[in-house]
User: Fold this.
Amino acid sequence: MNLRLTSSALALAAMAAPALADVTSEQVWQSWVDYYQSLGYSVTEGNRDKAGDTLTLSDVVINGGMPESQVDFSVARITLSESGDGTVRTVFADQMTGEAHGTDPDGQSYSVPFTLDIPGNVIVTSGAPEDMTHEFDYPTMDFALTTIKSGDKETPLPIKVGVADSTGTFHIVAGSPAKYDYAMKSGRITFSGDVTSEEDDKVKFEGSIDGAETSGEMAVPDGTKIEEDMNAALKAGLAMDGVLKAGAMAVSFDFAGTDEDGQETSGAGKYDGKGFELSFGLSQDGMTYQAGSDAGSFELTSSDMPFPINYAIESGSFDMQMPVMQSEQAQPFKFAYSLAGLTLGDAIWNLFDAQGQLPRDPASLDIDVTGQMKVTKDIFDPASMAPASDEAEAEADGTADGAEGMEAAEADPQPFEPVEVAINQFALNALGAKVNAEGALKAPESGDMTTPVGEVHARYEGVNGLIDKLGAMGLIPEDQIMGVRMMMAMFAKPVAEGEDKLETRLEFKEDGSIFANGQQIK
Assistant:
């Protein structure tokens, strides 16, 4: 998995957040250099001047990344002034410049220059060389792109992001691993862009977020090179986690161009949301991604569509937890997803239900699955993740024996082998029907999850009534309704006489047989 963008973003954030400092200006500068080097970046200074209690650094360049994907930052001036009370005051030049450059998957070189304006910035640092706290204040941060160069062609790329009233702290404890924790709160965030593709398609957008809060921690062992070898860094003890909370968001956009047939097309849309929260974590113990969204709505109109698309949700969430290191022992995983209060616009409903026969109540979906899995390869080790794929590619290029190449491609195992799966919840509520299921399956001692052992129990409410309505509307052809009911009868049985409630109990046996409600179906 490629995390270069993550580490590059951390580096940029640190430029617009505390530069590490201590009781003397020289210690400030050295600790700042150590910080960037711990992330795999190099730091060079054009000139250094010490006058009294103030150290001035000029023409500072910070570079990091892999040869095919690098980011450079340039700072004309950094002043670090000792305040006489044990603190150091750091001020960056009002503008920084930089460039993201490298080679895309097609081998084409690219470069994207950018600027970051931070007028009025100040950082006050206190503490000791081995334990520093940095309080920062950035009244304004304005990030801007202007162009993108791909090969010999340069294309305008006017994109702007503005952040107001950013304050917070950045704390570092020296050692191995070095430990960092940060917290930042920002006011209103605005963004806009007017992008034209090489095919002359145009997209224009603008939006705002009422405010944001971010916090996190990171432990970086000595000698690790995150950009070059994430897997080795994790094994050495690299660990990071972070949280981003954002307030209400409003986005609008419009586009114009040509479709696949060369016909002109155009449209517009907007999104309004009440807020969201994202969090992540990564260490040798595993990787986690979690997201939660408050109420939001989306609208889209296009010349390609005869009606507008619009929908809304009351809330949504996502939770994924998975192991990343190879082990003979099974490790826990989790996948959960929730969508509440989904509603569709009448124009969408009228496509298949113009008479309003189906209930249009808000729909919901809840999934919660946990279990144990074996990891056969280190997920962040490129050398172990695709050896067979390389052989298969060589076969396709004629550089390997055809049969050997095909065998290598087929033998390339998946990195994950589930051994236990627990369906803690599956709940679907839509169109006046409800489906709920739970159960647990595990691999037999002499097999895998292709022949699991365990039970799954499902309950249905209102499904027969929904089938009747879909048949009356012609969405299920009349000659197929009987087949649908026979299939339902094979797997489901009534819970109570005269009620539209069904249940299914699936049993998976050691010998590979499967029973539905006591009847063998395999």
Observations:
- The two ends are 40 Å apart (CA to CA).
- Residues 25-38 form the longest helix (14 residues).
- The chain has nine helices and 31 strands.
- Residues 14 and 508 are 54 Å apart (CA to CA).
